[in-house]
Specification:
The chain is globular. The longest helix has 15 residues. Helix 5 packs across helix 6, helix 9 crosses helix 10 and helix 9 runs antiparallel to helix 16. The chain contains 19 helices and 23 strands. Strand 15 and strand 16 form a beta hairpin. Helix content is 31%, strand content 24%. It has a seven-stranded antiparallel β-sheet. The chain has a six-stranded antiparallel β-sheet with strand order 5-6-7-8-12-13. The chain has a four-stranded parallel β-sheet with strand order 17-20-21-22, with helices on both faces. Bound molecules: iron/sulfur cluster. The site of iron/sulfur cluster (SF4) has 11 residues, from helix 17.
Length: 473
């Protein structure tokens, strides 16, 4: 399961803004590994340097030295809408002369196709196949004069998830959709300001965390300081997977640091699904904290039985068939000395398609584990995500197709327990009604039935369609 993107914005007249943006993007590499880009401006049309690859592969001293100015925005991309190709890298610049804006986007616009057709009919020409360019063109198409009003106009038309950084030649903006699906925070740095997807990026560049940018908020930063404009907010719908998996454990969202929240998920699993075992392991790195929580609550010793190759990232070198056949072995190596003859509790963040978990369990058994008891921090995922998480279509989601005992048998575990929704909310320790949990419940915060049917029809074998009651339109 992949998150869609990371965004950064820096307004700091006395700083090397491109370098600060680089290090903030470096801290947010986990949110997208396909491409990276930075835009800066020196009072003229924004200039962009963006390429395919990891942050450290894209930029060097030479490229950063050409990105000068007082304002920068940056982006790491994992594509959810629009294919993975150089033409779709961000930030994107649209508009002419002093009206040009650069924009970086995290999220997914549900009504992008409709807006794309409407804007194309008006004569707007699209360079990319991303919904980000739809947002950008919608903003500049607004009849309003002031840019804040133009952004407001776009916010009234857009449906879906968007946390944006946006810049003109003298102003930086941070914008968050009224549902607040993706996080966005504001920090301060020596005489300047930083906007970032997660607070860990602020920590890494020595910025002080100030506050969350609220759902429906437009923050404008310029020589006259920070100004805030609020749009009407309905039901809040922060993605609960930020707490389970996406965000870094050293980030705080809504004032809740993620590491203790994940520990509490593990403790909740120990309460809901106790078992006699010899050792507990969290699948590294996303379930490490939850493994600690299960161990502390159950009193079963914690052990490291799987070593992760932390440098497995996106690479342009394709593995040959022999290496591909090794599957998760590229990522994890088990320790027989730890596992041999042991009854193991294995804690993981989630099961989506159920393709990786059986391989991990097989690795443990081959290394000598006598029993493997699987514990999962996320409740069963039965519905796809339409807000920027590249999950799967409904027929690919194993929990939508099989009962829990069937999933247990399929993955080859001795027992399987998913944390309940109430247990998850208790661990996160925030009000239930601020979250999106649509992938567990099927209750989406905005109407998306037509989109769901279309996606299902595009991707589901015809034989499966009738099982879901989907009719051809
Ligand atoms: S559907 Fe699931 S993954 Fe998507 S935003 Fe909602 S909680 Fe997050």
């Amino acid at each position: 399961m992949h998150e869609s993107c990371a965004v950064v914005g820096v307004y700091a007249p006395n700083e090397d803004v491109a370098r600060l943006t680089f290090f903030a993007l470096f801290a947010l590499q986990h949110r997208g590994q396909e491409s990276s880009g930075i835009a800066t401006t020196e009072g003229k049309r924004p200039q962009v340097y963006a390429k395919m690859g990891l942050v450290s592969q894209v930029f060097n001293e030479d490229s950063l030295s050409h990105l000068t100015g007082e304002i920068a925005i940056g982006h790491n991309r994992y594509s959810t809408r629009g294919s993975s190709q150089i033409g779709n890298v961000q930030p994107i610049v649209v508009g002419k002369g002093s009206n040009a804006i650069a924009i970086a986007h995290n999220g997914n616009i549900v009504n992008a196709e409709y807006l794309y057709e409407e804007l194309s009919d008006q004569g707007y020409v699209f360079r990319t196949s991303t919904d980000t360019e739809v947002i950008a063109n919608l903003i500049i198409s607004s009849p309003e004069k002031d840019l804040v009003d133009k952004i407001r106009y776009a916010m009234h038309r857009l449906q879906g998830a968007y946390s944006l950084t946006l810049m003109t030649n003298y102003r930086l903006f941070g914008v968050r959709d009224p549902l607040g699906v993706r996080p966005l925070c504001l920090g301060a740095i020596d005489g300047g300001w930083v906007v970032a997807s997660e607070s860990c990026a602020l920590d890494h560049i020595g910025a002080n965390s100030i506050r969350e940018i609220e759902p429906g908020e437009i923050v404008s930063i310029s020589a006259s300081g920070v100004e805030s404009y609020r749009e009407e907010v309905g039901k809040r719908s922060l993605c609960i997977f930020e707490y389970i998996y996406f965000a870094r454990p050293d980030s705080a969202i809504n004032g809740r640091l993620l590491y203790p929240a994940r520990q509490a998920m593990g403790a909740g699993l120990a309460e809901e699904y106790p078992v006699d075992a010899d050792l507990v392991m969290g699948v590294p790195d996303s379930a490490t904290a939850a493994g600690v929580g299960y161990s502390v609550k159950s009193g079963i010793p914690l052990a490291e039985g799987l070593i992760k190759n932390r440098y497995v990232g996106r690479t342009f070198i394709e593995p040959d068939q022999r290496i591909r056949d090794l599957g998760v072995k590229l990522k994890f190596n088990p320790l027989p000395q730890v596992l041999d003859g042991k009854r193991v509790v294995l804690v993981d963040d989630s099961i989506v398609r159920g393709t990786t978990t059986p391989q991990v369990i097989r690795l443990l058994r081959r290394a000598g584990a006598k029993e493997v008891h699987m514990r999962i921090c996320a409740p069963p995922i039965r519905y796809p995500c339409f807000f920027g998480v590249d999950m799967a279509t409904r027929w690919e989601l194993i929990a939508a197709q099989k009962t829990t005992p069937e999933v247990r048998d399929f993955i080859g575990a001795d027992s399987l327990g998913y944390l309940s929704i109430d247990g998850l909310i208790k661990a996160v320790a925030l009000p239930k009604d601020i979250f999106c949990m649509a992938c567990f419940t099927g209750v989406y915060p905005i109407p998306i039935q037509i989109e769901m049917d279309k996606l299902a029809l595009e991707t589901m074998p015809t034989a499966q369609q009738s099982a879901f009651g989907i009719k051809q339109r």
